[in-house]
Amino acid sequence: MPTTAESPLAAWAACGGMALTGRADGPPLAPPGDPAGAVRRALAAFAADTGLDPTRLPGPELLGERAALAGFGRRAPWSVGGAFRILSCVDGPIGVSLARPTDLELVPALVEDGDPGEPWAAVAAWAAGERAADAVQRAQLLGIPAALIPGTPGRAKDEQAAHRSLRPAVTGGPRRDTGLPPLVVDLSALWAGPLCAHLLGLAGARVVKVESPDRPDGARSGSTAFYDLLHAGHASVCLDLASPQGRDALLRLIERADVVLESSRPRALRGMGVVAEEAVARGAVWTSITAYGRTGPWSEWVGFGDDVAAAAGLVVHDPATGALLPCGDALADPLTGVAAAAATAAALREGHGRLVDVAMREVALAAGAAPGPGPHTVCLRPDGTWQVETEHARFPVRAPRARTPHGRARHLGADNAASLGDVA
Q: Which pTM was predicted?
């Protein structure tokens, strides 16, 4: 039997994830599987492959860092960030994210009503008359993140794996020995990719974040402290990727990279002449983070942390109503960020180019499939805090907490001259 410190339930209660799961007026809830343990194991592998002192890394508490710095709390049936809900269809539940202005703008097309009123009410009413698979397919065709949710939390039927064309990892040429720490060109955004880049930076990598002026990282408009936490110490480059000059500068920057980190759907970069396999052939590690993988029928689907986690069965039952509720804060994002960092570090240690295909849903599936919490009760203490009680132990539900950023993130394009001087 695992010790209290090692148990999935104790780890979830300690990391802040439990405090973020459930209704604000109800008890905090345990997840399926072992998300905190998945983070702990991936960080241990990362430390081993990079030679980094593990005490310099965060622990499973990184699952709650965004919420801690943004002031979020549990608020089911909404997600912690407020942009995701689980909705009922004729034959089962689906998860929908309306996280971007464009998602809200597409609601009239989704529900086929030019004046639908309040967006969430309109989507919920529309979904109630649709079959779940049809609703998800229509949303994804429009580019709205939506996902089927398995009926039993933690027991996702992996339809994607049944159809996905799983191919061997693409291996390329030897890595160039420059005598310098690895150069990471980070084309990702939001949480999963930037967390991967942040961890690589902690291990000594030089990180250059690349954004476009018309589509900067959406996380810049969120919690400043959280953005600083992930990006302090990284160079910032801004390129107009709609122009030939901007695309040429990007290609030349990628030619110098030891690691390219991106979170785009496969066809997006290829349309700009950026081909992952060419970088891998030159000896680079190309880490691709997507919602559902680079290949297969879902490769062009969009997804964010909450809806992808739900698609993997990382949801909980409301003890009062039995309804499905979100689990943690955009849980697939931090799970994937740590997993991608571990996979990238392992590829760098091998010394040759490699295409690392990291699918968020597959990472979340693995975390949810691990042995999870056993029987327990959650009790409200006289001081207003919550306590978990099992047959052998009692432990508190800790609030989310975050590390202090060690500096400020660079403003958009601050390092164009320094980073592009020899590639412009």
A: 0.93
